[in-house]
Design brief:
The chain has about 375 residues and is an alpha/beta fold. The chain has one domain (about 5-380): 3-Layer(aba) Sandwich (Arginase, Chain A), CATH 3.40.800.10. Helices cover about 40% and strands about 15% of the residues. The chain is built from 13 helices and nine strands. The protein has helices at about 5-10, 15-25, 40-50, 55-65, 95-105, 130-145, 155-170, 185-195, 255-260, 265-275, 275-290, 320-335, 360-380; strands spanning about 25, 75-80, 115-120, 175-180, 200-205, 240-245, 265, 295-300, 335-345. A nine-stranded mixed beta sheet has the order 1-3-2-4-9-8-5-6-7, sandwiched between helices. Strand 6, helix 9 (about 255-260) and strand 7 (about 265) form a beta-alpha-beta unit. The longest helix is centred in the C-terminal third of the chain and has 22 residues, at about 360-380. It is globular.
Length: about 375
């Protein structure tokens, strides 16, 4: 099936067709990272926490997908265990497995429906980079058939699954767990398309040490350093992308704001002027722009490396967890947060020299912020 036919099929499908797509393109929570024997104990531990057993999980998970409408939770977790769109230190593909476990252990009050993980071929990024022969071969590997025309790359599968989710469950919101930050491209694109079609004015609140506003990186246009550039066209206006925590950039703030029309609040400004002062200005901007709903994309490296060293690109002089929470709490009090993600937690990648396991610190802080965002989606 060619690419145009895939696009047509994904535009509007019945609920039964969507259920079949989920059971093929997704897999049980924690299984999205492609392994043979690695981390079997960790996966079994997550299965026990989620389902009370380790056997027969595939069927239990498939049956759970039939109950999405029955749950009162608005928040739905989707794991995308891909770091192919990264490019510094790899390892963010373990984020969905580890962050889920940390949420269960440290934030037990959090409630959400778990859709599971996107099936990931770890060396693929987006279907548009593949020829038809490769796509057909990968379809046979993932789905044992190319007949249905399902996508095969993590970014393509994610957008397709999210499009169907918002079509059938418009009052629910997806919380994506990555994975490298390229994954926020399909998550936010799908969200923005759905909200635009529903007549909602939206803004993306983006926490990051980096602007992610490259046009391409080494010839690839969709990656962790460029995803923001390519979702601007789906926003009501470019300045509806508001970035917090920026500090690692080859160009200054005026370059990015004048070139792309976005709004930035660098880490040193938040530190010098105070998080509350900054967020008050942002709220005034959002109110003036008549924004209805927010999507929050959180790259863990927005936090200073003291709290977030287990990531591909840890950076000093960053935000504190308290500063991030001041901003998030203030925004959530004024606007519904109806979608969000947590990206770039790489538990096995720790560049710090701290004596204790700082991956535990990174996961702890990531879980706190994730729990807040999940609660916010449920309350929206």
């Amino acid at each position: 099936m060619n690419m145009q036919k895939q696009i047509e099929v994904s535009m509007s499908i019945s609920k039964e067709q969507y259920y079949n797509k989920m059971t093929q393109c997704l897999c049980p929570p924690g299984d999205g990272v492609f392994t043979v024997n690695t981390a079997k104990e960790r996966k079994d531990a997550l299965r026990t926490k989620l389902y009370g057993q380790t056997d027969g999980i595939e069927q239990i998970w498939k049956e759970s997908l039939l109950k999405i409408e029955e749950t009162d939770y608005k928040a739905a977790i989707l794991g995308i265990s891909s770091d192919c769109g990264g490019g510094i230190l790899r390892g963010a593909n373990w984020g969905p497995l580890f962050l889920r476990s940390t949420l269960i252990e440290q934030q037990p009050h959090v409630e959400a429906f778990d859709l599971g993980d996107v099936r990931v071929i770890p060396h693929l990024l987006h279907d548009k980079y593949l020829n038809e022969g490769t796509i057909e071969n990968c379809q046979k590997a993932l789905y044992q058939s190319s007949k249905e025309g399902y996508h095969v790359s993590p970014l393509s599968i994610t957008e397709d699954v999210c499009d169907g989710f918002y079509q059938h469950y418009p009052n629910k919101g997806i919380f994506g767990i990555g994975g490298d930050h390229s994954i926020s491209y399909p998550l936010t694109k799908s969200y923005l398309k759905a909200k635009r079609d529903a007549g909602k004015r939206t803004a993306i609140i983006h926490f990051d040490a980096h602007t992610d506003l490259l046009v391409e990186r080494l010839g690839i246009d969709l990656c962790f350093g460029s995803w923001c550039t390519h979702i601007l066209e789906f926003l009501p206006a470019p300045h509806h992308l508001i970035q917090f925590g920026i500090r690692s950039s080859g160009k200054d703030k005026s370059h990015w704001e004048s070139t792309f029309g976005v709004k930035q609040h660098w880490a040193h400004e938040i530190r010098e002027r105070g998080a509350q002062t900054i967020v008050d200005e942002v709220i005034a901007q959002l109110q003036a722009d008549n924004v209805d709903e927010l999507y929050v994309s959180f790259d863990i490296d927005a936090l200073d490396e003291q709290w977030a060293s287990a990531t591909g690109t840890p950076e000093g002089n960053g935000m504190t967890p308290d500063e991030a929470m001041v901003i998030l709490k203030a925004l959530s009090e004024r606007f519904p947060i109806t979608g969000a993600d947590m990206m770039e937690i790489a538990p096995f990648t720790d560049s710090s020299l701290v004596g204790q396991s700082s991956s535990e610190t990174t996961l702890r802080e990531g879980a706190k912020i994730s729990a807040f965002l999940l609660d916010a989606i449920n309350k929206s």
